[in-house]
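Try this one yourself first.
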């Protein structure tokens, strides 16, 4: 007699109590022999890499791009929000709403972008005065305005749990291009130009751009001015401390010029004055700020042997000044005022080295 086929076994209930709630199995402890996925915590803040000013392009594997004239920002896109950190460590997410919104659109990927916040003129050139005006630093207001500035990103330091500072710049550049692919809003890629640096600099100068920046493609990301990044400029523009002003009854704001200082070692030294480039509203606002900073001591804040009448100031305000050259005795030539640097920007004050008998060599 043929055997009847067996009935298929009934599946066991997930739980003994079929009417109860489903429960997952308890999590077992990780086997220490199993490898762990690498994860780098996101740095709370990274001091930026800085470009050293050069008169000639260095030898080596350098990539070149336009030098943007604005405020350096580190864009932190984090799981709990976005931060836009200035060089001084201040969060300006409320000051640059367009950049902040573009950063949110890049999420939820966690990353840190390094770039420059700029305002562009009608020819597409970055204009520091326009940026200052958008932030209320042109004398119209002293409050905290919001700026429609955009950000040109030129490096990426962190991406999806990985600290990228140990990678070569060329590798970071590829990752940055991928991260920004398809995004053309308020965060844009600072394009690398494959050209001879001198031909590129000549072209940049004809267009009225400040200069170009070169980055060693084989270098890691190192904070500070290491020589991995360099800049060649058409017109020199640096930050100087305002240490005094020359009063004038016939000029806007009641001053004819600002007296400037730079660092030599730990000391401030007088490097000349600037008397052009001021707008009326700027001059009036600047004079109000300087009235609160009059120097109370007998000796001026810097050694000075000039003959003009000077109202000395506490060395607090930092001016961005454009100039063409230096005199033999270390004074600025053909200088023009561009604007005040904000405290939050933590701008580098110009520094001077005394080396090989040359008294006025640029270190910054």
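Now uncover the answer:
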């Amino acid at each position: 007699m043929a055997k009847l086929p067996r009935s298929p076994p009934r599946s066991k209930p997930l739980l003994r109590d079929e009417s109860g709630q489903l429960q997952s199995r308890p999590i077992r402890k990780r086997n220490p022999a199993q490898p762990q996925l690498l994860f780098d915590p996101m740095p709370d803040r990274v001091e930026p890499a800085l470009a050293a000013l050069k008169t000639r392009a260095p030898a080596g594997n350098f990539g070149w791009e336009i030098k943007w004239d604005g405020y350096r920002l580190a864009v932190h896109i984090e799981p709990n929000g976005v931060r836009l950190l200035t060089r001084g460590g201040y969060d300006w997410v409320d000051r640059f709403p367009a950049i902040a919104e573009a950063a949110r659109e890049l999420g939820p990927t966690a990353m840190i972008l390094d770039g420059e916040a700029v305002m562009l003129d009608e020819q597409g050139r970055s204009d520091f005065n326009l940026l200052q005006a958008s932030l209320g630093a042109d004398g119209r207001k002293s409050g905290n305005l919001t700026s429609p500035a955009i950000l040109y990103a030129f490096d990426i330091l962190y991406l999806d749990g990985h600290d990228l500072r140990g990678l070569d710049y060329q590798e970071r550049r590829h990752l940055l291009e991928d991260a920004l692919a398809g995004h053309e809003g308020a965060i844009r890629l600072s394009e690398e130009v494959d050209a001879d640096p001198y031909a590129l600099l000549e072209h940049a100068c004809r267009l009225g751009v400040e200069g170009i920046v070169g980055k060693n493609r084989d270098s890691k990301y190192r904070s500070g001015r290491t020589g991995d990044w360099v800049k060649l400029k058409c017109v020199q523009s640096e930050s100087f401390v305002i240490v005094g002003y020359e009063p004038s009854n016939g000029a806007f704001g009641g001053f004819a010029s600002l007296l400037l200082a730079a660092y030599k070692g730990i000391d401030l030294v007088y490097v000349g004055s600037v008397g052009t480039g001021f707008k009326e509203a700027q001059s009036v606002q600047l004079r109000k700020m300087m009235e609160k900073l009059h120097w109370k001591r007998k000796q001026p804040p810097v050694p000075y042997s000039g003959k003009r009448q000077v109202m000395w100031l506490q060395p607090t305000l930092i001016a961005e000044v454009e100039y063409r050259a230096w005199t033999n005795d270390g004074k600025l030539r053909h200088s023009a005022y561009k604007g005040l640097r904000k405290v939050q920007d933590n701008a580098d004050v110009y520094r001077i080295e005394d080396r090989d008998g040359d008294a006025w060599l640029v270190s910054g």
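Discussion: The chain is about 15% helix and 30% strand. Helices lie at 97-106, 128-134, 169-180, 197-206, 280-291.
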